[in-house]
Structure prediction request, 723 residues.
Amino acid sequence: MSDKPEKLITDDGLRLDGRHADEIRPMKIEIGVLSRADGSCYLEWGRNKILVGVFGPREVHPRRSQRADTAVIRYKYNMASFSVEDRARPGPSRRSIEISKVSREAFEPVIMAELFPKTAIDIFVEVLQADAGTRTAAINASSIALADAGIPMKGLVTSCAFGKVDGQIVLDLNKEEDNYGEADFPVAMTQDGEITLLQMDGNLTPDEIRKGFELIKKGCKEILEIQQAVLRKKFETPVEEPEAEASEEAEGSEAEVVETEPSLEYAPEAAAVEEIIEETEELSEETVEACALNEEAPECEKLEEIIKDAEAEIVEGESIEGAIEAESEEEVEKEAFEEEADFEAAFEASFEEVSEPEEIEEPELEETEEETEFEPEVEEFAEEKIQPEEETQPEEEAEIEEAASEETFESESEIESEAESRKEAPAEQTVEEPEEEKCKGPWKVVKDPSESGSRGENDE
Amino acid sequence: MSEVIATLKKDYIYNLMIKGKRQDGRGFKDFRDIKLETNVISKAEGSAKVTLGDTQVIVGVKLQTGTPFPDSQDEGVIITNLELNPIASPEFEPGPPREEAIEMARVVDRGIRESGAIDIKKLCITVGESVWIVFIDVHVLNDDGNVIDASCLAAIAALMTAIVPNEQQGIGTNVPLAMREIPVGVTIAKIGSKLMVDPSLDEEAVCETKLTVVSSSDGSVAGMQKMGSAPFTEAEVLEAIDMAREKAAELRELYLEELVKRE
Prediction:
């Protein structure tokens, strides 16, 4: 075992591994790595290597441990004997039994076990390499594995630790910091920020704990984004279907965005979130229009209906004419802003009329022929550029950043990546843009090799 | 523990709680009666018995010589064990310790270890070869709720009255075990959205989650553990910490500080 380094935090405020106090270690997640497990996940976090397999709901053995009203959740944390410097004795230790218990309790509030009475849901965690923070890493991985297994959950659980090193509160301790630091404080929380696991050892004042909680929330938010990105990549991959379904689904997704997040209402940031939802609704509508514009196909009747509804609001054809002629952003803006009420209609109408492929769209048409479902989105980005959104955009982003609630992440990343592409990306690039956005920062999202094609990249 | 409790009783306790009352008439910040006896087992180097309401816990401290851990060659070793004796509850069975027993033992251990309660450097006999190993064995004799707080209290009291049996090893005279800190564990139970100290057995069955906070005499927190399946909010955690620190200071003053003088 190495000796204690003189300083765990250098004079310029960086840690031994070059991180800032509020930075987490790089995290890599692979999903579905085990073929026999119902759900699985491989996670690397710093030098931690964790493998999780989820089985179930399945029959309970021994039978007497089954429960008539709910599923039994079993969590088994196990350290490989070679995972640490001195060989660990195989089999459960007192430490691993304790970790298993608290980790199971971390998941009990989110797993909808009552849906599967008389069954067991087994979560097996193998720590292949340990480097401080294995229980938090294991919880993050288990969350993904449970989702991969299709176990109904109220949300993902994210986990992260803070600690005190050289008198400073830092996020996500590495091995040296864990060994020689003054405190370790692992926490797991739901997407609503409810704490489902809390342990602590060391020496902390209540003020330090408060400070630590702020770091934890930041860390968990970042981790949640990584988790969601991984899940999206796997589960939002479109099924190749005729274009008719594609456009219908575009509508369906609009409804879904609203429906799947009912709990948002209860979040303190509900107002901000609602705005985001509204925004998404708007976007989806535009998506639909984009589709119509592109295809001129009969299956776009629905879309046309929407457009017609919009048209009903148009005062006179005047603004339409103007908009049709307007090829450039500026012109649309000028025209559209003449009258606030007319703007939307004019804007929409312009798209409808411009049914012949324009310069902007041509590359899209070729590129997206196979990607039926994403076509609308791609188009949308192109359209988005024409819309004079610049004024509303910064506001919206600020709001999103303020909303600390983990609930907003999903919406946030959607909006952000869209905003990103709107602002800077030419239409051709929008396909890659959202994904690249996610990969920025200290982590890298591991791409599932089976889905590394361009398909599913722009599925915001 | 996972005692079975009638739904009727559960509702009763829950409804009382909403009205700001508890089954036995206590306030949310009141402990049940505590009785602390020390030196109850003369064969042990240190011992204490705590009666908390009807919960009874006895702790014996034994010291033996042994080899130190390779990464702390000049430090004594602390080993804590907690036994949920079948005598204490019809729920307990003989055999290897259950999860709860292991967890509670580790929480008791964590508080003592992390607060630096024992001056472990003074337990070194020969660097790298021989040190004192302090065995803290917690026996739960009767489980009527909040075993963990009773165990924390009994463990620290037993340690404070323990002696290092140097004579037995022929290395000088017996001295009191060197203590530096008095950690006290207080468990806060959450029922609905209310926080209360010292849950009784029934309250433990109703509450879905508890937070044990072990704090030192300067008010800093040395160890924490959330037990149970329901979540806490951040505000609740902070409130619970303050509550626990306040109660810990009271308990320390009432029961433990006199043990310091005795030395």
Notes: The helical segments of chain B are 7-18, 99-114, 147-160, 166-169, 201-206, 234-262.
